[in-house]
Amino acid sequence: PAINLLKDQAPGTFIVRDSNSFPGAFGLALKVATPPPHAAAKNLSDPSTELVRHFLIEPTSKGVRIKGCTNEPVFGKF
C-alpha cells in the first residue's frame, strides 16, 4: 500500500493511482510533515502512518475536486 511506499519519504512526496472504489477517479496519497490534530487523540502503535494522508481526486463538470481536503477545492479544466 501507499503507506509503506511513503513512510520513509520526505514530506511533499505523493502517489497518484487509479481508484479501485470509484471508477474514473484517482487516489492521492501524500506524505505530510505533521499529523492532523485528531491523530494526537488516537493511541497508535505506529504514529508514522498518520503522516500519510489520503484523498480522492474526483471528476466534476467543472474539472476535478480533491475530496478529503477541508475545503475540497475544485481545479478547473484547461
Distance between the termini: 31 Å
Number of helices: 1
Instruction: Please trace the helix and strand order, writing H or E for each element.
Output: HEEEEE
**Number of E strands:** 5
What does this structure look like?
With 78 residues, the chain is mainly beta. The protein is 6% helix and 36% strand. The chain has 1 helix and 5 strands. It has a 5-stranded antiparallel sheet. The longest helix is centred in the first third of the chain and has 5 residues, at 2-6. It is elongated. The mean pLDDT is 84.
Brief characterization of the structure:
The protein has 78 residues and is mainly beta.
Write the layout of secondary structure elements.
Elements: H1 2-6, E1 14-18, E2 26-31, E3 52-60, E4 63-67, E5 74-76
Antiparallel strand pairs: 1-2, 2-3, 3-4, 4-5
Q: What are the defining features of this structure?
A:
elongated; 78 residues; single chain; 5-stranded antiparallel beta sheet; 5 strands; mainly beta
